[in-house]
Structure formats: structure tokens, C-alpha cells
Amino acid sequence: MLVGCDGALSIVDPAGPAARSIALLWWVMLVGGVLIFGLVMVLIALSFRKRAACEDDAGSARLWIVKLGIAFPVTVLLALLAYGLVIGEQLLPRESGETVIVRAEARQWAWNFSYDDLPGRTTQDVLHIPAGRPVDISITSTDVIHSFWVPRLAGKLDAIPGHVNTLRIEADRPGTYQGLSAEFSGSGYDRFTFQVIAHDETGWQAFLTGETE
Amino acid sequence: MKALERHREFSRIWASAPGFKGLFSTVNHTDLGRMFLVTAFFFFIVGGILAMLIRAQLATPHSAFAEPDLYNQIFTMHGTIMMFLFAIPTFEGLAVYLLPKLLGTRDLAFPRLTAYGYWCYVFGGGMLLFSMLFGIAPDSGWFMYPPLTGAISSPGINTDFWLIGITFVEISAIAAAVEITVSILKFRAPGMSLARMPIFAWYALVTALMILTGFPPLILGSILLEVERAFGLPFFQAEFGGDSLLWQHLFWLFGHPEVYIIFLPAAGVISTVLPVMCRTTLLGYGWIVAAAVALAFLSFGLWVHHMFTTGIPHMGLAFFSAASTLVAVPTGVQIFAWIGTMWKGRPDLRLPMLHILGFFVTFVIGGLTGVMVAVVPFDWQAHDTAFVTAHLHYVLFGGFVFPILAGLYYWLPHFTGRQRFFYLGEAAFALIFTGFHVTFLAMHWVGLLGQRRRISTYMPEDGWTTINLISSIGGFILAIGIAMVLIEVILHMLTSRRSPRNPWSAGTLEWAMIIPPAPYNFASLPHVTSREPFTDDPELAVRLASGEGYLGRPNDLRETLTVEITSGKPDYHVIYPTNTHLPIIMAAVTGTFFLSLLLKAYWCIPIAVIGVAALAWRWVWVLGRKQDLPVQDIGHGIELPNASTVEHSPGWWGSLFLLVANATFFGSLLFGFAFLWTVAPGWPPPAWFDASAVELALGTTGAMVGAAAIRRARRANALRQPPLAWLGLCFAGTLTVAIAAAAITLRVPAPVEHAYAATLLVLGSYALFHASLGMLMVAFLVSRTALGFTSAARKTEFPVVQLWIDYLGVIAILVFLVVHLTGWLS
Question: Looking at the 3D structure of chain A, how many domains does it have?
């Protein structure tokens, strides 16, 4: 288990498109980070070699500061920023006919979910969604700040009193996914969790017709 | 006069009172620097013990070691103590101790202010310790998000301890920042132009300016939240036109610069120590200064990266994401300049160098994970998990603790005059380095597996057990290493092996003196012609001790001189105040004010405020003299005027930078008002302010009359005419401002019903406070003039008062416009 990626709450064990693209982003950044770290460590180690002292300060400054200190990070960062921006844009909840809309309202320490497709029905601490379809969660809070987070499906978004934030999640396959509130909220914070049940098409229809408890 | 005789004379003039009692009246920067550092290290130990409790709790699942209510206090206090009571005071202590010595002068600009800041820190820190010992410590996390910290969710006194105690401690940060800024700009050895300043002074200057502009938003936020809790003014309550997001903006507007406020002094230590360890000079001095300045500017533009999950539009986030990653550029410049310095010289693996290597490894990893969390989509996952906890410890431990340990071992011979005798330090370094990485490298991974920060326990089936256990074991190894450092430092102070002077062969001025340092630092002040004066002239210490520099003749006064800011040409002569209990008394009375707020003993507040005002009056009053001082001979044929006869005395510079902080506070308040108006739900308010053209005209005119009258008073004094009539007019103008401001506070619609009215009340009170302050200052100047403490030559108090009256004019007019115009427009 020490170096495994799997786990009910693992970011690196994605089960939906949003979490998957962020997990890929992580692996890319990890590899890049390790390479840069290695480069810096090698440069530091090499400074301990025995060699003639170099007294050309202006030349050294050009190499160390202008090339390594400025040009190198600027190049890497611009590429990373562009990559991050594209992924971020793809994850935004955009208009589409397919989308299922759910409202999530947090309080200390429970989540209430209500469904646009099923007026009047609310579920507590269990969110029902269809698998394979984008779901937009409208998130708010009635007391303090909380955060809606299903690590294997997507990133988190805060539930803030007086504001409604919309997060898109999607599960590839039917199943049960663990969710957490990820903003410290006082003494009940440890146990402030919920479940997301992703149904297949028939299961979802059964839920919509009120057959699922 | 022989060197020894001179040493005795100067020591008599500059010494603090003997013994333990002397600590309470000392104003000497060497004493206060040591006191700051010892106290800060004490809080580091306390914070470290709390960290051990956290790791004990998380070592196993289902831990029953601490209940959530207790655990919440533990992690909140760990963060609070490390940030506010360890890191910032350590910078203050190091700067207070080192700066005058590095800059070749005898003390900081305002010795009593140093002492006042120290005692505010001790008393404020004491309040927080008290709350912890009695189990009523803050428990909402060190960034105190409302509504969780509001009166409804946190009715206890715990949160008040944080808001009031930390604000009290921040007085010391602001005091130290003003002190450090003015000292670096004005109090240097002759010839030390800005370009010849030791690099640490540049870092300290940038840090101090950042404190002046970074802390005010948090002070404002703390005041607003405390006012909301105590009196129900709803700044952060959505149902009454407030917004909890306002707190996050104000907090991180402080909180992110704070990270660089902590890192930059440490980088200053690296830039100072590393070249000495490599027997060379720093590569790219100018680049490094530019990088530090760039970091300072950038750091104010990326606070939103702590708020990527609050629902701010993605393109807005993209801007802050870009700014956040760009911070890596000036950081990279410094890192590569340091590595280039190592290539340029011949690095020696002495103990400070080991800690610098520890810094490189740790901080580079922290920087790389920092770039990762600055990428918005990744932060959506990593935010509020153990990954972020791990990242911030890599940055802060790597970017602060390792450099400070390097600095500790580097300057230890300077602090004590002794050599290391027991070589525990190398083993301690190995334990600290190993322990740290075992603890926090593991923590990244458990964060990726979904462990949130701030949970008090977890389940075996979460799959985090092994990693947490490893992490806890690493934590205890780290703690043993820190304990060994502590033991070594204590042993070091008990053994008696004298250190040679300048044990590292450094080139900066702090080593050109006897160690441990004499209270006057230099028997005569050097003339500086390069960045490394002690390398240029290895005999410098002896020559200064035998009085060959400036001001080498003891004459019963604590004397120094100032220089012109950029060129370093001698400017004027300064006489310092001597030992006094005034700072500790003033801090105690200031503490009474905060304590009255905390205990809701509101009847006591006016008493404390009057007490502070009376002490402040005395503070300034005792500096006056009734005779003009002639120009002073400082040696080498140079004559300087005394500070009491110049336009821009140290007091004027201090006021200027205090007003910079004050203006940031006011700007944050206006930002808050605009933010609530445009973003908060629940607007428009049920009732608008009933605008009055008469009050607006009266207040504005009063402000302008005050500013004009103080100028006429100043001119009259210069022309040897009596300025009293003009001062009277200035008082009348200021009084008018006070009346118009008071009218606002009395006439706002019910402030508990909407954030709009609550904000207007704060704006009005702000103007009223400054008008009262202005009246007090004008009254002071009237007394001074009437009793013969001013003259055409002794004019220096007029520009200081003018500065404050001008500031009052600007903010009062803005307040009147904002308050009355919003009433009309709506």
C-alpha cells in the first residue's frame, strides 16, 4: 500500500474524465519536477570539484543568471501555464443538452442533494448520478464554508454561504465513489463525508421514477 | 586616549543597567536582538512540541490521543505560533541584532521603539500561551476563516485570543519594520552608498517594506472580525450584505506576502553566509537585489492562488496562476546566482554550509511543488490536502529554518564570543535533514491519496496508516535533531573557549569589532569604500577601536550620525535616548487596551487609550531641548547639524513609513467596501446614508484649513514669528474634521443590520481617530512652542506634525466623499 496509487479517495486513481486529466497533469509535472531537481543537484555537486578559480564575473552572471535563472524557468513555466490553462478550460461546466443538474447544500455536518430532474426528492449524504454523463453540481452552504470533493471524479469546489458555485463531475462507470468535505469546519470535520452512487442507464431511470431508496 | 580607555568610556555611556533588571529598561539593539531571538526560539520549541503532538495523533488510525476539540487547538496554535511568534520575530531579532553592525553604526533609528516592539511581542505571545495552557486556545485553523470563526459558530473566547493577541503581536512587526526601514535608509557608516550595502541589508529593507504593506490588510481583517464578533457588525455574514470571502481576500493579501516576508531574510542569510563558506564574493549582487525587489512586487499579486477553489471565474484564476508561477523566476535567479557563487569559489563543508545544502535540497523541492499547486486544475485536487501541508513545510522549513540554522552557527561566535566545543551540530544536521524529508516527503503522497489537512483521525481502510506512521517517525527524528541543536547552543554558552575575532574570515563590518560585541559596537565609525570593508583593510577593527574613524571621542552622549540615502554622504548628527522603562510600561498599557477588549471590560478601554496617549506624549517630550545645538564636529574635519535642526529628522522618516502602512490599511478598507458592494450577496442595503452637503463641505474645508494652517505655522516659525495663532487655526480645522467624522458615526443607518452601514461606521471612526490624533499632535506642538522647546533652528517637529495633518486631510476628504456620495447616488 505504501507506493500504490489506488484508494477510495486517491487523486491518482481517477474514475472520471476530469480527475483523469488532472492525474495526467500531475504525472507530467512530477517527471518534469524530478528532472529539474536532478539538474540543480548535479550543478550543486559539481561545484565541489577541484578546479582553477574562475574570475570572469560578468560571464558567469550571463550563464547562471540570465540563461539558467531567467530563460530556463520562463520557458518551462510558459509551457506549463498553457497546458494548465487548456486543461482548466476543458473542465469548466459548459452548456450542453446532456447535462444532469444537481443542487448540493452543505451544513455542519451533512450534505443535502436535490435533483432538477426529480423535483421534491432530496437525499442526504448520498448523491445519485448517472454514469457516463456530465453532472453539474450547484454547491452552496447554509452555515460555514465547506467544500465538495469526490477525489476520483474531479477537483473540489467550495460551498460558501450566499454564493452558488458550479462544479462538473462525471463517472466513467457505474459504482460507488467516496466524497469528502474538504474545508475545515470544526469538530465534526473528520467524519464529514458522503457517497456518490453512479447508476447505469436502467438504475438511473429507476432512481428518477422513485424506485431507488 | 588609548583604545582600552575609550572602550571603558563608551561602555559606560552605552551600557544597559547591570543584571537581570537591566533587561526591562534596555534600549540597546544588541540586547534586544538577543532577547528577540531567544524568545522566538522558545516559541519555536513550543510550536515544535505541538507538531510532535500532531504527529503522535496521526501516527495511527482511530487515534484516541486527542479529541477533535483539543486537536483543533493544537494544529491551530502550531501554525499560529510558527508563523507569528517564531518566524517573523526571528527575522526581527536577527535584523535588530545585526543591522547596525553590518551598516557600521551604533544602534537602530529608534532604540525605544525596538524595546516597545519586543515587549508587545512578549505580552501578545503571552496571551496566546495563556489561552493554550487553559485549553481555550484558537481552534479554527491558523487562517481563521469566517463564518466558522464568527460569533454563531465559535461563540467562545478562543477566536478572540487569536484576533486580539495576534493584532497585539503585529504592533511589534510594524514597529520593527518602520525601525528597520529608517535604519537602513539613514543610519549607515559614511561612504556606504546603497550600492555598497551588505546584501543582508537589502533583503531586510525589502522585507521591512513588505511588512509595512502586507500586514495592514490582516490587521484590518482582524479588527473587522473582532468587531463583528463583539458588536454584531455583519462584515462577513452573507444574510446581512457581508461576505465571508472578504476575509479570505484580506487574509491572503497578507498571507502570501507573508511567505516571502519569511523567505527573504533567510535568503539574505544565505547570500551573506554562502560566499564566505566558498571564500569568494557573491555572484550577481545587482541581480539578486533586483530579484528580491521583483519577488516583493509579485508576491502582492498572487494571493488568490489560495482561493482557487472558491468559485472565482477561470480567467481570473489564470491571471493569478501566471503570477504565481512567475514568482519562480526571481527565485530561480537567486538559486542560480548562489550556485554560480559556489562554482566561482571553493565551497567548504563547514557546519553553516551543511545547512545551506539542506536549504538547497529542501527549498528546490518546495519550489517545484509550489509551481505544481499554482497550476489551477492540479490545485483543485491538491487544495486542503496533506500535499499542501507538505509543500508549505518544504518551503518554510527549507526556505527559513535551514538558512536560519546556517545563520545561527555562522553568527554564534559573534553572539557569545566563544568557539564551538562539542561538535554535536553535524550529527544534529544529519538528524534534522533526514527527519524532515522522511516526515514531509511521505506527506505529499498521503495527500494525493486523499488525506485532508486538519483531520484529527482516519480509518484503517483509508490506506494511509503506513505512510502516516513513517511520517511520524520522521517527525520525531527531526525533533531529536532540533533538541541537539538546543543542547549544543546551551553547552556552547557554558564552555569558555574564546573564539578568535572574525573566525570565518568574512569581509563585512559586523566582524570588525570585539566579540561578544560591546554595547556601542564601534568606538569610531568607519568610512566605507566597498561592500567588504574588512577584506580591504584587515586592520580596520584595530583602527576603529583606537578612534581613527568618525565620532571617536566619548562625550557622555549616545551619538551617531546619519547619511544621505543614496550616496552615503554624512547628513546629520543624532543623539539617542538612554535606558528607560518607558517602552515596557507603554507596552503594558497597550496590553491593557487589548486585554480589556478580550475580557469585554469596555469601561477600561478609555483609560488604556488615555494612558497610551499620555505615555506617547512623554515619549516624544523627553527628546526636546531648550537650547539650540551648534553644528557637531564628527572628526576628519566634517561638521554636521544636529537632528533637532533638520527638516527630515528620523522621526519624520519614521512617520512617513508608518503612514505607508496606515495608507495600506485605509486602502484595504476601501477595497473591502468596493468588494462588498460589487460581490457580496444581499445588496442594496435596506437604508442608505442620509447625505448632507453641509457636513461634507464642513469636513472638507476643515481638512484643507488644517493643512494650510500647519504650513503657515511652520513658515512663521522659520521666520522667527510666533506660530501659535496658526497652530490654533490648524487645531480648529482638525476639530471641524473630527465633528464631521463624528456626525457620520452617529448618523449611519443601523450598522448591525447591513454591512454597508457597518462599513460606513468604520470609515467614519477611522477619520475620527485620525482627527483626534491630529488634534493631540497640534496640542503637543502648541505646548512645545509655548514652553520654548522650539526655535527657528529647532524646527524639526513642525514637518512631522505637518505630515500627519496632511495625511488626515487626504483620508478625511476621501472618507467624506465616499460616505456622502454613496448616500446621494443611491
Answer: 1
Q: How distant is the Cα of B136 from the closest Cα of chain A, in angstroms?
A: 14
Residue type, B235: F
Dihedral of alpha carbons B184, B187, B189, B191, sign: positive
**How high does pLDDT run on average in chain A?**
91
Give the end-to-end CA distance of chain B in Å, rounded to a whole number.
77
Q: Which helix (H) or strand (E) holds A79?
A: helix A72-91
Identify the residue with better confidence: B107 or A62: B107
The reply to whether A118 falls in a domain is yes
A61 touches chain B (CB under 8 A): yes
- The per-residue DSSP string of B108-175 comes to -S-HHHHHHHHHHHHHHHHHHHHHHHTT----S-TT--TTTTSTTT--SSHHHHHHHHHHHHHHHHHH
Q: Which of A7-11, B60-64, B390-394 has the lowest mean pLDDT?
A: B60-64
Q: Which of residues 312-371 of B touch A (CB under 8 A)?
A: 314, 317-318, 321-322, 325-326, 328-329, 332-337, 339-340, 342-347, 357, 360-361, 364-365, 368-369, 371
The whole-angstrom distance between B743's CA and the closest CA on chain A is 32
Per-domain residue ranges of chain B = 3-494, 684-825
pLDDT of A88 over the 50 cut: yes
Topology of domain B684-825, CATH: Four Helix Bundle (Hemerythrin (Met), subunit A) (1.20.120)
Domain that holds residue A23: 1-51+92-213
Chain A, window 138-167: residues with a beta carbon less than 8 angstroms from a chain B beta carbon: 143-145, 147, 151, 154-158, 160-163, 165-166
Grid coordinates of B759: 462599513
Of A106, A112, A87, A95, the C-alpha closest to A184 is A106
- The edge-to-edge listing of strands for the beta sheet with A135-141 is A118-124, A110-115, A100-107, A135-141, A165-169
Q: Provide the sign of the torsion angle of the four alpha carbons B162, B167, B168, B172, taken in this order.
A: positive
B3-494: which CATH architecture?
Answer: Up-down Bundle (1.20)
Tell me the average pLDDT across A187-203: 95
- Any domain includes A7: yes
pLDDT of residue A54: 62
